[in-house]
Amino acid sequence: MTGRVRRKIIRIDETRCNGCGKCVDACHEGALNMVNGKARLVSDVYCDGLGDCIGECPQGAISFETRETEPYDEKLVKELLDRRDNEKAQKAGCPGSIASHLAKGPLTERSSDPGIEKGTVVSELNNWPVQLRLIPVNAPYLPGAELIVAADCTAFAHGDFHRTFLKGSRKVCLIGCPKLDDKENYINKLSEIIRSNSPCSITVVIMEVPCCSAMVRIVEKAIEAAGQDMDLTLVRIGIKGDKLEEETLRYRHKMQKMSLAEQVEGPVQDQDG
Predict the structure, then answer these.
(1) Which of 76, 106, 136 is the last residue of a domain?
(2) Single pTM value for the model
(3) Total structural domains in the chain?
(4) Residues 6+ apart with CB under 8 A from 186
(5) Cα–Cα distance between 211 and 178 in angstroms, integer?
(6) What is the predicted pLDDT for the residue at 267?
(7) Burial of 164 (0-12, 13-18, 19+ CB in 10 A)
């Protein structure tokens, strides 16, 4: 966070606010909330000073003022909006965000299910959701789990992904794209999951393409932030779906040995040569 700056920001006159909430809906940054029936500015860092809320207030309770305050922080705004989206989905009962343990019996029991046609390849998925951003840190299937952190292309490239990586009652699948998604968000989420649930191992499944190695760094940084030792396995999948490489090491907190990501990309060179 940088130092305080003098900038334009909104001001709410609570004596005129009638609690209609229209300003809250109009604020795209999530800077406003209803507290005890009145609109309140959650924090100055969330207010961009553009005033989309002002025109929506029927009571004229919102105006601009220029004062010394913290600068607008777009990163914090994004994190706030992501949290609120997840909370809304949970309250609404959205099946995309409700943590569900899908663990079933052995494969023979699954195959005997009258609803499954003979010869059908059945799912080995034990958890829902699978998208890393949507998984609650306190999901019931996380404590002591064997985490499979997979780049989302791998399940499409590797035809036997379920039986190869997800078979087993303790396997939990977490997917994401290390190139297109927010890396810092993933690091923070994974570190919370590791710190709160002490998984017994993590397997990182990536494609052979260079951008995918960022997923390894994400997991390593999350382990480091959680301050735990961990059995960490790297599996690389070729674009034709074949398994190119598998390697396991004991990742130790603050370890001195070369990281898995450096083994994939090569050692990080000092800027001074």
Answers:
(1) 76
(2) 0.57
(3) 2
(4) 132, 133, 176, 178, 218, 222
(5) 7
(6) 47
(7) middle
